[in-house]
Amino acid sequence: MAEGALLAVSNLQVWYGESHILHGVAFEVRAGEVVTLLGRNGAGKTTTLKAIMGIVARRSGSVRFENRELIGRASNEIARAGIAFCPEERGIFASLDVEENLLLPPQVRPGGLTLPAIYELFPNIKERLTSQGTKLSGGEQQMLAIGRILRTGARLLLLDEPTEGLAPVIIQQIGKTIRTLKERGFTILLVEQNFRFAATVADRYYVMEHGRVIDRFSNSDLDANIGKLHEYLGV
Ligand SMILES: Nc1ncnc2c1ncn2[C@@H]1O[C@H](COP(=O)(O)OP(=O)(O)OP(=O)(O)O)[C@@H](O)[C@H]1O
Ligand SMILES: [Mg+2]
């Protein structure tokens, strides 16, 4: 493992039943970085995040966080180690209001954001405190889903396609939030298909295809890699 990695994934394999989905995924995230996993539909990006969280049926290989091995640990232990996952489907409870949704995930470590600090980051959410989950727009739901995991005290945030289906102005707000979180010392592993958005927040990229990492580059090399990226992502 490289010196100084907060998260180091190597030879990660995942199976869903008989289907072998990840074939030796390897990458690392250093403390304070925003790292983006890019790749087409079905490349294995979400499966990689779920495997880190321990919410896939069968996995092997190594996922080291703060130099501790997470493979073999239960998902609640992994959460308590200080990793939080914001899923693609956002997971907002329709029958709960905004504040109830915010209070749902348990605090796993000291140092999580307070509710006022979360409202400061997401003023739109503050205006909607007593609204039910279902009444929120897609953008509000996404902000609530991110805000919610900031309370937990996790220092590594796994964000799965936070911009999916959102209007450009909301996407910009989410980009600003991610940059603020980085400034405050959070480490972020982001899954994106929208590399134009990713370019506004990411330090480095890994490209996935068919359950493997097939390329990697830093943000400063993005321009030089744009042709290859179009090919990888089919855009
Ligand atoms: N629960 C599951 N059971 C069986 N196969 C699954 C399951 N979840 C995902 N897969 C398969 O695993 C592969 C990787 O899926 P995954 O969701 O990780 O891709 P992704 O890169 O996140 O794609 P997308 O961009 O569409 O979100 C796909 O072939 C998918 O069909
Ligand atoms: Mg996905």
Would you kindly provide a written description of the structure presented here, covering whatever features stand out?
There is one protein chain. This protein is an alpha/beta fold and 235 residues long. It has a domain at 5-85 and 152-233: P-loop containing nucleotide triphosphate hydrolases (Rossmann fold). It has nine helices and ten strands. The chain has helices at 45-53, 75-81, 98-102, 115-121, 123-126, 138-150, 168-183, 195-198, 226-233; strands at 5-16, 19-30, 34-39, 58-65, 68-69, 83-86, 156-160, 187-191, 204-209, 212-218. The strands form two sheets. The chain has a six-stranded mixed sheet, with helices on both faces. Strands 2-1-4-5 form a four-stranded antiparallel sheet, covered by helices on one side. A hairpin with a 2-residue loop joins strand 9 and strand 10. The protein is globular, with a radius of gyration of 17 Å. The protein binds adenosine-5'-triphosphate and magnesium ion. Adenosine-5'-triphosphate (ATP) binds at residues 16, 19, 21, 39, 41-47, 193. Adenosine-5'-triphosphate is lined by residues 16, 19, 21, 39, 41-47, 193.
